[in-house]
Design brief:
The protein has 81 residues and is of the alpha+beta class. It is built from 2 helices and 4 strands. Helix content is 30%, strand content 22%.
Length: 81
């Protein structure tokens, strides 16, 4: 995702001109849709954050399939979130 301002800079002369953004959409059998986004500053700021988040997203679906999407406390207790 390019930055409207051109770039984001911080100490040590580090900067980024794009954010590595990930958008996740979850549709449930009950008809609910959830949308989430993770947009870390960049690999020079948090080196593995974007890839780490996507790796986590790939692990979650098998754990959530079949659970009641309206029972968040049950999901937390079942999987320790």
């Amino acid at each position: 995702m390019p930055l409207h301002e051109g770039s984001y800079s911080w100490s040590g002369g580090k900067s980024v001109d794009v954010f590595d953004s990930t958008i996740v959409i979850v549709d449930t059998n009950e008809g609910y849709t959830g949308v989430g986004e993770i947009c870390p500053v960049g690999p020079a700021y948090l080196p593995s954050f974007a890839r780490g988040a996507r790796a986590g997203f790939s692990e979650l679906p098998p754990l959530l399939i079949g659970l009641d999407s309206t029972a968040l406390e049950v999901i937390k207790q079942t999987h320790g979130y």
